[in-house]
């Protein structure tokens, strides 16, 4: 009976709210970040206010501060005979970073020196979070190193370029004004109801336990007073006999 009553109550609340349940909260409307306007259908929409200056900005790296972000690997002081190209993403949005490394040098260190971000997980080569594609073969930069069995090019006398395709990363967008589904709303209401029922139950048990403890303390107090009274009577009888 209780779940049915809860469902009826939630349904009545949703019917009472109507279309207002899907409108934008008034707190967002009054926010200095946005300015409200209406479209042709009369629906309220929010747009960023012109001239707004954010209170935070992206931190500059050491390369940005010193102006060495666009320098080549040799100009940066990186040494090595194996040319390596890091590619992150595909198409026009792909980023390319060229550097050099020594045979046997950890790829994790090479990427860090070149400024290539790689998302790591376990750091032991087990989870596959950092797995990348290098010239048709998969490797894991957290544990793999620059190959030491590379052969020199017969024409140029140099090592061939290693193209390491790194997985693209993107920021997770979290919306604070998202309207949850009716199912999640009902389940949340039901969980809160169960929590209140459990609170009442535990409160009754605690009250009963407290009453039992108070009764025991009263009994101990009564026995102690009775024992003191008997000792006082025995002491008085002993004094009477001595006289």
UniProtKB/TrEMBL annotation:
Look up keyword Metal-binding and say if it applies: yes
Database matches in InterPro entries = 2Fe-2S_ferredoxin-like_sf, 2Fe-2S_ferredoxin-type, 2Fe2S_fd_BS
Positions the record marks as coiled coil are none
Ranges of Basic and acidic residues compositional bias? 210-234
Q: Tell me the leader sequence span.
A: 1-21
Q: Could you tell me which residue ranges the 2Fe-2S ferredoxin-type domain spans?
A: 99-154
Q: What are the protein's UniProt keywords?
A: Iron, Iron-sulfur, Metal-binding, Signal
Q: Which domain of life is it from?
A: Eukaryota
In residue numbers, the region (Disordered) covers 210-243
Q: Which GO terms describe its molecular function?
A: iron-sulfur cluster binding
This chain belongs to the protein called 2Fe-2S ferredoxin-type domain-containing protein
The species this protein was found in: Cyclostephanos tholiformis
Q: What is the lineage of its organism?
A: Eukaryota, Sar, Stramenopiles, Ochrophyta, Bacillariophyta
